[in-house]
Amino acid sequence: MTEWQPGQLEMKTPNKVERFLAKHNPYKKEAEAFFHAVETGDRSKILSDYEEAWHSFKVALAAEKSISEKRLVDMNEISE
Fold first, then answer.
1. For 66, phi and psi rounded to 5 degrees?
2. What's the 3-state SS for the chain?
3. What are 21-41's pLDDT values in tens digits?
4. Which of 80, 56, 77 is nearest to 65 (CA)?
5. Residue 38's pLDDT is what?
6. Alpha-carbon gap, residue 7 to 65, rounded angstroms
7. Could you tell me if 77 and 65 are in contact, meaning their C-beta atoms sit under 8 angstroms apart?
8. pTM recorded for the entire structure
């Protein structure tokens, strides 16, 4: 079983529990890059375009569906 919370991932098996803690807040840097772009018009710190972001979002949706339905989810199930 896998449990996720901001800053922490926990993986449980019958024999052990592993915790992985984030060393840095990944959203902080992302937000700083966004606000910098809005304030200055300089988009150089934004590392992905809209299409790449959309694909990443679809992967997250598939993962969430997989966890909630306790099954493998084919990416084709996630509609455009």
1. -60, -45
2. CEEEECCEEEEECCCCEEEEECCCCHHHHHHHHHHHHHHHCCCCCCCCCHHHHHHHHHHHHHHHHHHHHCCCCCHHHCCC
3. 888 877 888 899 999 999 999
4. 77
5. 96
6. 21
7. yes
8. 0.53
